[in-house]
Specification:
This protein is α+β, with helices and mostly antiparallel strands. The chain has 1 helix and 11 strands, in the order αβββββββββββ.
């Protein structure tokens, strides 16, 4: 009787282990498919000069808490990593239509941050304006300390937090 209970416990532990492995592989496949569907080639995070990104911003204008007019400063032209493993890195936004940010090598800006998802967030241009969008990341994307759940308009001086990395929008 006791040996059959031990055998059942071993089998149950083995099933739980295989479920965990299956969930981990599924999550990695989801990150890889998001990175490959973005279509952007990776850019070294230490790159300061502008490059060309993939275009493809969707139509329509998202409505966020940062509307036009009241207190709106100029549109940002670069981003600077102010905290995290790559502090001091600057990326010029000229020439880009879309920038993906995350740990995946398929992202435009690759973060060395264990708290960032594979493809964590996306910045995309609409006319002269830049918008920030969270890509269903596990730890969320924060704009000026508030977690975002829809595309938000970016302005100069705002801070984006992704994992333990902070990015400041510069003129």
């Amino acid at each position: 009787m006791q040996s059959s209970m031990v055998l059942l416990a071993k089998i149950a532990l083995l099933v739980v282990l295989w479920l965990f492995i299956w969930a981990a592989v599924r999550a990695m496949n989801r990150d890889v498919s998001r990175a490959s569907s973005a279509g952007n080639g990776p850019v070294s995070p230490a790159v300061v000069a502008a490059g060309t990104g993939a275009s493809g911003s969707p139509g329509g204008t998202p409505k966020g808490r940062h509307g036009r007019g009241f207190g709106r400063s100029s549109a940002p032209h670069s981003l600077v990593l102010t905290s995290g493993p790559l502090t001091g890195t600057t990326l010029d936004l000229a020439g880009y239509e879309e920038i993906t940010v995350g740990r995946s090598t398929g992202c435009t800006l690759v973060l060395e941050d264990d708290f960032a998802s594979g493809t964590h967030a996306r910045l995309h241009r609409r006319g002269e304006d830049w918008y920030l969008e969270d890509l269903d990341s596990r730890n969320g994307t924060f704009l000026d300390g508030q977690r975002i759940d829809q595309p938000e308009l970016l302005t100069t001086g705002q801070e984006i937090r992704i994992g333990q990395t902070t990015v400041r929008m510069q003129p």
